[in-house]
Amino acid sequence: MGLVAAALLQRRGIRTLVVEADAGYCTGSRAICLSRRSMEILGWIGADAAIGAIGLPWVGGRSYFRDREVLHFTMPSDAGERFAPMVNVQQYHVEEAAAKAFEGAGGTILRSTRVVDLRNHADGVDVDVEDEAGRRTTLRAGWLVACDGGRSTVRERLGLRMHGTQYEGRYVIVDIEQESAREVERLAWFDPPSNPGSTLLMHRQPGNVWRIDYQIADDEDAVEAVKPENVLPRVRSHLEMIGETAPWKPLWISLYDAKCLTLDDYRHGRVLFAGDAAHLVPIFGVRGLNSGLDDAGNLAWKLAAVIDGSQPGALLDSYTAERRHAARENIAYGAKSTEFMAPPHFGFRLMRDAALRLALDEPAVRSLINPRQSTPIAYPCRPDDDGTGALVGRPAPEARIAHPSLTHLSQCFGDGYVALVFGDGPVDLQGTDARVVRVVPVAPLTASGAPSTERVIDAAGEARARYLAADGTVVLVRPDGYVARRRDHPPVASARIPGRQVAPA
Ligand SMILES: Cc1cc2nc3c(=O)[nH]c(=O)nc-3n(C[C@H](O)[C@H](O)[C@H](O)COP(=O)(O)OP(=O)(O)OC[C@H]3O[C@@H](n4cnc5c(N)ncnc54)[C@H](O)[C@@H]3O)c2cc1C
Fold it and tell me: Which member of 55, 233, 248, 297 has the lowest number of beta carbons within 10 Å of its beta carbon?
């Protein structure tokens, strides 16, 4: 996610250098499920098309208890959506697309170079880096965004600790190559005949690759558990059970244990933490990379505004407040999913198995076993928030629109502030530097009628419905696609909206 943060900063005119310990992109089993929100963020740096061209979109999944299906879930989606709710693509493809976007915007990546130490000053950071040959240099930066992952050197050198929970359940993660005509969906088995007592997940990836995760017994030795002679028979047994008979070969085998940890503060002087360096969430529910990309989206415009002097440094306080809140919500969801996948004690397992057994015949129970996949987190907002429409602190809803070059409202976001003005009526927008987008039900008669505003056509009324908007509603959307302010039916005099304010944290 560091490359995405860097690309967002670089596109905002902030000269950014990426220091990367590796020579290339990540290897092994890493993230594969990208959320719709992540695709939107990747769209802001122009990387969505490359990923969309490779990725496998999906909308739902199935869970089985032993050999019987207990749940078939689908996520909200319809044919006209810009992105599917989820896209499966290997993390190295995402890194490559982000690197190209960053370099294309004029950014530089210093590869095979490791950050080894740093010193925070009032007006910048001295960063000691070491190349492959062991040569040390000190780089001087105005700000350092630490995106150096779960074992962050920056976090360690600043003496910071994350707080939270580490789960004892362990999973073997195996990526295999095998041709298959099976639908792309999330598949989960609890106590399957192929691997009795275990929980097993399967996901398809581009290039005929399958991700298979299975839980190992508490008393199983970790070193033994990842040996091919112990892994391959379990995989074979499962593939046979589900009727996948094509030849296959393993690509990667690793061990995973779930952690729910976050730093208390994501800003330390001139150093800002993002992604796994700031928080670790379990892989179940796919919130790791997805939430890291949301960190990048939240941080980049704020940091750019502070650096270019258009905002005071205090704006960055809202970064910790909002993203730590998101991390805690993600951790709560991730913990629930983890406990369902690998019950932490006997009582929990008893209840989980009872829910699974009941779900066989009782559709009402099935919602209890529905795995909640990653969605963008709403930030704390007004006490009068009733949870509907486009409200302050929530991601601005998506809607299909007609426009010469746009198909969806979300394509208007990700750059500066956007004031969505519903209808063609008069509104006083003096004092805002937001880009004004008029949302109107029909196309204007002449294209030359309104040089200072832009119109998008909401012919089916989807935007109005999703924003709970009427003529005169003004919704101010932040550069990261979150609602900053809204005014409904305002008298003209009070429709003035500030151009550069964030939702209260
Ligand atoms: C098996 C598995 C499956 C997962 N599935 C999903 C999923 O489907 N969806 C999802 O959203 N998340 C998933 N995740 C989580 C996801 O992989 C991480 O959350 C994500 O990689 C975090 O991104 P990051 O950029 O913060 O850290 P990283 O991806 O770890 O990147 C850190 C970068 O910093 C570099 N670095 C480290 N130390 C230094 C240093 N000292 N100097 C310079 N460079 C340094 C590293 O080389 C690396 O390139 C999964 C994780 C695992 C293990």
Answer: 233
